[in-house]
Fold this protein.
Amino acid sequence: DQQVKQNSPSLSVQEGRISILNCDYTNSMFDYFLWYKKYPAEGPTFLISISSIKDKNEDGRFTVFLNKSAKHLSLHIVPSQPGDSAVYFCAAGSQGAQKLVFGQGTRLTINP
Amino acid sequence: DAGITQSPRHKVTETGTPVTLRCHQTENHRYMYWYRQDPGHGLRLIHYSYGVKDTDKGEVSDGYSVSRSKTEDFLLTLESATSSQTSVYFCAIAGQASSYEQYFGPGTRLTVT
């Protein structure tokens, strides 16, 4: 039972354009959502997060949107840069559980 | 960057042999986690610890055990390695009960032949 799903295994975007990565979840108890970025042969690194009391959080080129009614979140990267090429994982947590559930990941490739 | 190291970074072992992976942190964080990463499955939680000698199972704990005798060290043991345990293993830490953010180590690539 996959509680957090990233349905697109890969995404290819031209440099300078917007990248949109999507994530769906099924557990309505999740109240915090995170995005991680992973380069080959490295551990995932935290990118941006959002609490369920918000519907948007911005950090520079990265914006995360949360639609609680649809149980959907998305990560927007604009403008996309070659260094953004990586695997992106979304993750979700619920208060008190102190653990995260991760999606399968989406491989983002930024083409020059 | 959080001070997390994993050892070894790479290991090849034979089916049926015991294997222990080590995670060491210098952040004095309370929570520590072991994940495995496999294609198509993302990161799956194996075991986690919420304090010295306090551990609990994750979603894929069968065939794995853990121990935490000191705040800084979290060990993952495969009692009898199987080919299905070939994977990349990541350790993560988190500092506060109110914080969901976890910080990951560099990973250990384990191959069971």
Remarks:
- The CA atoms of residues 31 and 97 of chain B lie 8 Å apart.
- The domain at 4-112 of chain B is CATH 2.60.40.10 (Immunoglobulin-like).
